[in-house]
Amino acid sequence: MMKRTVALGTSTIFLLGLLSVPAEAANRAGGPCKRTNAKAKIAGFDYICQKNPTVKRAKLTWLIKECVDSNNQYLAGKRAYAKKLQEREDLLAQFAEVERDPNLTAADKEQLAKDKQALTDSFDKLARTSKDMYELALNVRELACTSGI
């Protein structure tokens, strides 16, 4: 009877110990998770529970933090590029309005054309830089969000 009681007590303690294993112990990179934006440290790296932005119909998985960061940089860069293109269009509309002024002299028109060219060149360089940056962020995102790396 004593052996049975000791065995039952030992088994109970063992089973309770198994049930109390923290949920993070089961986490693995790229594995499923339950709560959006939950954070975990897996193999010494920071992970976030989110849908992988590079996968269609993605489910919640543990993504390395760099994947989420590079996706945010990509989206911000894409918005900045679109904004630069819109600003350029607005600038050209302003120049068109000024160019319609009948009181402009030939010298004014010449100076206006030079200024317009200089400003559009600057906007084009800024837009190309914005595009290059968001494309770079896209490449980083593709690498960071690929499982198994």
Task: Summarize this structure as a short list of keywords or feature phrases.
149 residues; mainly alpha; 3-stranded antiparallel β-sheet; 3 helices; 11% strand
Measure the end-to-end span. 56 Å
Number of strands: 3
Q: Could you give the order of the helices and strands? A: HEEEHH
Low-confidence stretches: 14-25
Q: Structural class, please?
A: mainly alpha
Major pleated sheet: 3 strands, antiparallel
Written description of the protein model:
By secondary structure, this protein is mainly α. The protein starts with a helix and ends in a 5-residue tail after the last helix. The protein has one domain. It has a three-stranded antiparallel sheet with strand order 1-2-3. The chain contains three helices and three strands; from the N terminus they run H-E-E-E-H-H. The chain has helices at residues 2-19, 65-99, 106-144, and strands spanning 39-42, 45-51, 60-64. Helix 2 packs antiparallel against helix 3.
Can you lay out the helices and strands and say which pair or pack?
Layout: H1 2-19, E1 39-42, E2 45-51, E3 60-64, H2 65-99, H3 106-144
Helix pairs in contact: 2-3
Summary of the model, kept short:
With 149 residues, this protein is mainly α.
